[in-house]
Amino acid sequence: MNTRPVIAFLTGGYSGEAEISYKSALTIEKNVDTDKFDVYQIDIRPDGWWYKTAAGVEIAIDKNDFTIPLETKRIHFDAVLIGIHGTPGEDGKLQGYFDMLGIPYTSCDAATSALTFNKRYTVAVAAFAGIKVARSLHLFKDRSMAPASIAAHLQMPVFVKPNNGGSSIGMSKVTDPGDLANALEKAFREDEQVLVEEFISGREFTIGVFRQKGEIVTLPFTEVITKKEFFDFEAKYEGLSEEITPAQVDEDVAVKIRSAARRVYEVFNCRGIIRIDFIYNELEAEPYMLEINTVPGQSEASIVPQQVRAMGWTLRDFYSALIEEALTVK
């Protein structure tokens, strides 16, 4: 009798980040331990949720109980491995659905996912908990603020970015107040809400954090040196950045980054693997948190796989640890 846990691996999504999900899926698919787990890949798309059989037939998932109604049997799942960037995998929607069904999953819970998907609410909670963040303004499409007022409230340069989502789509760095209007228009094309945030000068670091057997584990972190004005979509996915893993830093800096990362993981009650972006302000000798990614990329170009290898683990070990941790959640 087969006693291997049955795992649903979710890819796709409803946003422009679906293309990143499919890149991540190629890596995850290759490295999930199929000796330990029975894995079924499910493609969540605007036209439905689908499982493709070996014969290439797409079968619609029964959303009433999240099962696959095969001709010979109905597949039920012990846990879900979420590989969807953007909505509905990173913003809490699927997490809430699985909570109602009582099926555990590998990501943060619904509340944390929804909160961290909103960049403004994330920095507000972080600031409340004493974690250093940049000063910012939260704008809404139907009641935005005039560029002159923004320039009066915040010191240039600023980042203008969609408040929800990731992959830096729609993001701009603005050094001249005269360029604010165009940057706002670009960001509002991606989202109804926009975050305008003061630029913090310093080195950029990003660190993967996960929980294994109840312990918070920080991965060897990465310094990101971009060839562009900032770490945008092209820099992330089209090779226009240099990523040094592990980062070459003094140990006192490393201790501060790791400590801040653990603090963020605890404050936001995170689960599974997250990736936190920091700017290390050398004048203050303090890390400033930029944002939290609760479903970080897993493609060949992505940072978390680099960090896992730098720790001396294989991706197979890593994905097994994430799934096994999820299976312990009741």
Automatic annotation (TrEMBL):
InterPro entries hit by this protein: ATP-grasp, ATP_grasp_subdomain_1, D-Ala_lig_Van_CS, D_ala_D_ala, Dala_Dala_lig_C, Dala_Dala_lig_N, PreATP-grasp_dom_sf
Transmembrane segments: none
Catalyzed reaction equations: 2 D-alanine + ATP = D-alanyl-D-alanine + ADP + phosphate + H(+)
Major subcellular location class: cytoplasm
Keywords for the protein's UniProt record, in alphabetical order: ATP-binding, Cell shape, Cell wall biogenesis/degradation, Cytoplasm, Ligase, Nucleotide-binding, Peptidoglycan synthesis
Uppermost EC category: ligase
EC number: 6.3.2.4
Cited SUPFAM superfamilies: Glutathione synthetase ATP-binding domain-like, PreATP-grasp domain
GO MF annotation terms: D-alanine-D-alanine ligase activity
Positions of the ATP-grasp domain: 123-324
Cofactor: Mg(2+); Mn(2+)
The family this protein is said to belong to: Belongs to the D-alanine--D-alanine ligase family.
Protein name per its UniProtKB record: D-alanine--D-alanine ligase
Species for this entry: Flavihumibacter fluminis
